Amino acid sequence: MTKTAVVCGAGGFIGGHIVNRLKNEGYWVRGVDLKENEYGNMQADEFIIGDLCNAAVAEKATAGMHEIYQLAADMGGAGYIFTGDNDAAVMHNSALCNLNVLHGAYLAGAKKIFYSSSACIYPEYNQLDPDNPNCTEDSAYPAAPDSEYGWEKLFSERLYLSYSRNYNMQVRIARFHNIFGPQGTWKGGKEKAPAAMCRKVCEADNNSYIEVWGDGKQTRSFLYIDECIEAVRRLMESDFTGPVNIGSEEMISINDFAKMVIDISGKNISIKNIKGPTGVRGRKSDNKMIKEKLGWQPSMPLRKGMEKTYAWIKEQSSIYQRPAVNV
């Protein structure tokens, strides 16, 4: 019997890649989102254009599915999440998506459901030192996320675990740490740091500068998309519920990250640090649990993934800026 799966948020970056991976494994796949994938990176057998904030859409999306991958959320980069201007929409829309998709999966009798949580759930007080952040899975409590986005993710983790306890649902929860790569949003204000950095460098002239928010001493780890998808599939095939970190342990300051992208570009560009939203001072994935529970951890060097990402964004940038030709 052919295995079936629905990917909620299939119009997005990670969702599109998950659809393709499942198709390559022989699944029949349904995608659902407010929009189709921006870059055509989605091979679903069926695609539903719909808002998962609507319970009827969520029930239609999950009907008849063996596996549910719930990635739909109201999200974006630091400029969207950390200003506070979008907090109500982020919490309302994302919470409704999770309530509806999870209950739809329960009604459908789905065998397994995956929920994509975030490293943003970790307490701000454990991430004040840029050189020594603490993001072990058990450090989530006492809770003190640095954004409403993080609070909603933490609430939803507990929601999924409650359904697991009360209804015997097979739930899998992962906390993503800054996933990046080709076919992701790279302009418009909702792009994440790796894509934004690539775009800035692509668009900058030689002997000019790019702007970097904050003092640039804040640290992060970034995980290439292929390794994220591999981790998700391994988690779904395992007996481990989670939550578990899916991220890299290779930590880098934002200024050094910018310098890496500049070096990849071959341009002569300087860095100008400006005021802007930065999030916590330090964050990187702690991979002890994923090694213990899945016998695996990500291994791709950051630079290798950034070389692939820069090449893709450079190509997209040139297409975007190319003048129209009248024929």
TrEMBL record:
The keyword Oxidoreductase does not apply. Residues 6-247 form the NAD-dependent epimerase/dehydratase domain. Keywords: NAD. PANTHER family: EPIMERASE-RELATED. This is NAD-dependent epimerase/dehydratase family protein. It comes from Panacibacter ginsenosidivorans.
